[in-house]
């Protein structure tokens, strides 16, 4: 194809900038006016010249000056969609309505709505609770459950707590505010795998110490577990429970690294690493490699802690691995005091797109599998279950407990209560609200006294809303919630309660034989308490595509 001989219109902005510079300069020199316009046109001319000469961006070479406006609008596209285009009920990842209810409850302002629901009640997937003609009267919304009832030091936990978020992912002021609010409200604050920092300790709120594969706060120089350091931290009165992190919903099986440049003296102090040294969380643990060893390690942690509840957090992946852990419980008699199920819809500061979107079982299915397995093996009465995954409202709590959980955790809900605006800049360090950043100039702007009160308010007002739901449903405590209380629309003309929609095992059903459910009947008999390896028939499937 021959080159066109006419002047390309796409160069018009560049050409006008050059012409504008000379014309405005001449006028300024002749009339004696200021030089503001020549400077502006000169800047655009310089930009256009740079665009034409650089070789990285073809669009900029073809559209000098104009292409920069395209990059500008692209960079603020998420904000434009979030604030001006998306509807109040569109979840990306949290809808404006979901965020607004948190903001309002955190600020203790009116959270009522006029004129009826904005939700589409006849769309597939819509859920609600059934109410009773004989509502109850509940005097206290501080719903609590006992975790580790067979331990020397059982813990009475709120049914709504702060999920794992590390110091290093969140700012110092954010951590201080969360823990202060937790102390005011009598609920727990999960440390995240970044261990216990000075900002967790200062307020004195209840802590669940999360220990990941990096063993931060209880590690040797080579990254292996250090029992003496663990005993020291675990003996703190603030530490009520210990949570061993096997995996998290947002990036299961991934591990992570905090670059040495971000390891400040305060982070190094909390994690037990050197300042400026890369802080590595391996994809798997070094303290154990089999289900039996996992349970032995949990018993070891319980002994070192002086008898505090010890459990683990996991996102459900291969079912035979979870079944192997439960088989190990049956064969050894060793059991965790609790299990926290982290749904695949969980959040994190940064993770690959495929991990966030397509890896890990969502909370509903994961929670059902864990609950059913424990019921089917007669272990459920001894092991409490927590659950996390986009829990921000009283209904979220109620539906999760109805599915089998004893309590719920929330991370992003409490971030919203701190003032998070869902800017989606958590991984850049440029959080505009000072929550997810280690830039002191940003983080210090977060007012601890004000935000801790909002954390407290959010917890209190959400549980007050939960109390009203229970009263309307004729219940007296969250422990009475069951699958019969929540209904889901499955088509325009059909609805089912969770009791009819999902399969629930009877106590001991797995021990008695076939359940009639493929996931149990196929994988449970083949799971091995001494190995996380796939069953033989799975290994054979991996050898060929001829299946």
TrEMBL record:
This is Ferredoxin-dependent glutamate synthase. One of its GO terms (molecular function) is glutamate synthase activity. Belongs to the glutamate synthase family. CDD domains: GltS_FMN. Keywords: Membrane, Transmembrane, Transmembrane helix. It comes from Marinobacter nitratireducens. The chain crosses the membrane at residues 12-29. It holds the Pfam family Glu_synthase. Residues 157-475 form the Glutamate synthase domain. One of its GO terms (biological process) is glutamate biosynthetic process. InterPro entries: Aldolase_TIM, GltB, Glu_synthdom, YerD. SUPFAM superfamilies: FMN-linked oxidoreductases (SSF51395).
